[in-house]
Amino acid sequence: MRQKTPSLHICQAGFEPFLAKEAGSTLAKGPGWVLAEDDQSELCFAHLSILKPIELKAATVNALAGGVADYFLRTSVDERYETPWPLYFEAAAVEGLKARCRSVEDAFHGRVSRMARVIKLAQNGRPEIGERRGLFVYLTDFGRAFAARRARAGGQRRMADDPQAPSRSFLKVEEAYGVLGEAPQPGQTVADLGAAPGGWSYSAAKRGARVLAVDNGPLKGGASGNPSIKHAEQDAFKFQPRPPVDWLFCDLLDEPHKVLELLRLWVEGRWCSRFIVNLKFGRHDPLLLLREVFSERTGIAQRCAILRARHLFHDREELTLAGRLRAHEVV
Ligand SMILES: C[S@@+](CC[C@H](N)C(=O)[O-])C[C@H]1O[C@@H](n2cnc3c(N)ncnc32)[C@H](O)[C@@H]1O
After folding, report:
1. DSSP states along 125-193
2. DSSP code of 114?
3. What DSSP string describes 210-229?
4. What pLDDT is recorded for position 4?
5. For labelling, which of 64, 168, 219, 288 has a CA lying 20 to 30 Å from the CA of 81?
């Protein structure tokens, strides 16, 4: 039987067991990474999948950097660099390894200095969502790195905070826009279920949208008294927007299957055209929950032009669904 080439999937440290289960056929794993056979599908727990990497082993920073540089030069022979390209160096969640990774990156730059024009076009950090060509390097330990020219990015990234945002949750919805590929626009309407203290509402209002914040709790910070945010003190499970809204935001602290059922209702009723929904999986198996999300029973995926499930950079024991309904499903 032909052996498939593995890929190195990167996740938030501590969530490797879920990623390994999701990826299947795991060959190895460590803090923040899983090496598994690649089946070309998007993984909720993978922030980045480094596709078909080569494995480099070397005892010193210089030798490791040399291996990466040789690989880069070798695979650049027929390459034309005209536009910005992603250059990504990252390390497993092992004490001291991030510093070593920076040293390897510095030494790499020293070795490819004759390609100054090419390196000038490099964009550091996590690439935008989707499959990209660039150079992706990941240190799993002090003497071992994986390097590849292609990677699939899930869209997760660290977001910048806003001092007026009333909660850290603000960062999640900001991150989810990148996963969906769009954000609320001026004049659009948003229903925010489980809105308090108002981080998500504040984020939409900041972009010029009009928000109905549904929660019995109080709004705070930049959401409190915000002229673009109306507060409705009522039960989110009994709320129906009239007329339908452009966006459903839902960050309810409740049992995830109950929240998923609420989303099913909204999608089936066409009460929104886009949604960002957070499911707090807590002690529930997130893989079973994911299966449910994409199942025919809920019918959500069938009604969506885009449906992405991600364990965000800013998520904890929760996952985030970002979706847009099909055109004929949009009201
Ligand atoms: C994690 S917090 C939401 C944080 C919010 N997204 C933010 O950015 O600040 C969860 C909220 O869900 C609300 N909640 C839970 N059950 C609810 C229900 N049935 N109806 C309305 N709000 C509810 C809680 O009052 C709480 O404020």
Report:
1. SPPPSEEEEEEEEEEEETTEEEEEEEEEE---------TT-SSTHHHHHHHHHHHHT----TT-EEEEE
2. G
3. EEEEE-SSPP-GGGTT-TTE
4. 66
5. 64
The answer to whether the beta carbons of residues 330 and 304 sit under 8 Å apart is no
Structure tokens, 300: 């959500």
Q: Tell me, what's the pLDDT at 241?
A: 97
Q: Where are the domains of the chain?
A: 6-153, 169-329
pLDDT, one tens digit per residue, over 181-207 is: 999 999 999 999 999 999 999 999 999
Q: Is the peptide bond before 197 cis (omega within 30 degrees of 0)?
A: yes
Is ligand 1 within 6 A of the CB of residue 196?
yes
The CATH number fitting domain 169-329, selected from 3.30.1490.20, 3.40.50.150, 3.40.50.410, 3.50.30.50: 3.40.50.150
Instruction: Determine whether the shortest distance from the Cβ of 221 to ligand 1 is under 6 A.
Output: no
Of 143, 83, 139, 79, the closest CA to residue 112 belongs to 79
pLDDT digits (tens, 9 = 90+) for 119-135: 999 999 889 999 999 99
Q: What is the pTM of this model?
A: 0.95
Place of tokens 């909204």: 266
Find out if CATH 3.30.230 is the number for domain 6-153: no
Tell me which residue has its CA closest to atom 13 in ligand 1: 194
Q: Which residues are catalytic?
A: 280
